[in-house]
Amino acid sequence: MKLLKTEEAVGHVLCHDLTQIIPGEYKDARFRKGHVVAQEDIPVLLSMGKQHLYVWEMTPDMIHENDAATRLCALAQGNNIVHSDDIKEGKIELFAACDGFFSLDAERLYAVNSVPDVMLATRKGGTAVKKGDKLAGMRVIPLIIEEEKLRAAEEAAGEKPLMEVLPYRLKTAGLVVTGSEVKSGMIDDKFTPAVKRKLEEHGISVVMQVFSGDGVENVAAAISQVRTQGVDLVLCTGGMSVDPDDNTPGGIRASGAQIVTYGAPVLPGAMFLLGYFPDGVPIMGLPGCVMFAGATVFDLVLPRIAAGIPVSRQDIIAMGNGGLCLGCKVCHWPICPFGR
Prior knowledge:
Elements: E1 2-5, E2 13-14, E3 18-22, E4 26-31, H1 42-47, E5 52-56, E6 62-64, H2 65-76, E7 81-83, E8 92-96, E9 100-104, H3 106-113, E10 118-122, E11 127-129, E12 134-140, E13 144-146, H4 147-157, E14 163-167, E15 172-178, H5 180-183, H6 191-200, E16 205-213, H7 216-227, E17 233-237, H8 248-254, E18 258-262, E19 273-276, E20 282-286, H9 289-292, H10 297-306, H11 313-318
Parallel strand pairs: 15-16, 15-17, 17-20
Antiparallel strand pairs: 1-5, 2-5, 3-4, 6-13, 7-8, 8-12, 9-11, 9-14, 10-12, 18-19, 19-20
């Protein structure tokens, strides 16, 4: 920081806000901290009584905060992400350009944030987002930053953008409703409305529904019937516990699906099943909690599945960190710690 005559400050960066007062008309910061003094600013500054200014001296190896934010934006912004129209106080924000799955490379993000005087804050990666949702904000800490630090951040980020939004790809689903009590009409099917609502939020429509009743063979046959419709996703509701009458896991295995996991470290939803058919179509066995709980393992897995991202057993295991719903009286999902 140095003190210069105002007339000599062109091209330098202001170190603090400069307030202009016009009695009865105006009182606000006329020039903000970080503003680069231009020739046309000189008469205004002098009229404000500013004969001298405290500035940061710009040298060839130093980058202004606005230019630095632009470079950070370039290394972060991937597909289906847009940035704010202007740079405010040295900060740029990123937003989702469509509904989809927010994919973030956390390890590379950590590497970028390890560079001194650089910051890039994001929402939690691996989550569902809506068009217009804020995804990230970035800036450098000082008004001007050394070029070498920005280069270090760019090297840490690598060649690919740190983040992108993957639009939902799956469009159709087939639903197998298990249980003889539901098929016979003894009890109402309360599972289907809950599942359809969650699917619709991710752009998926149920195009076929089959009531299988009980029995491994019946469940497997119903799955095969649904598969003839060429659906992108198969869901089986109910019958997921270890009770002798609960045959859904066996029916899914008998249908030819390869099981990724039966069981998940998530509550509610521990009895969840995920598998894939040889052609890549996913199938899920949904436990009863999906009917009534505000958020379950289904809500954690569905965004990835809808975006066409293969889910591994290791992905499911990782959900144990944050996979405990706190059972709030008023559910605030997804604005809560569950799954985060």
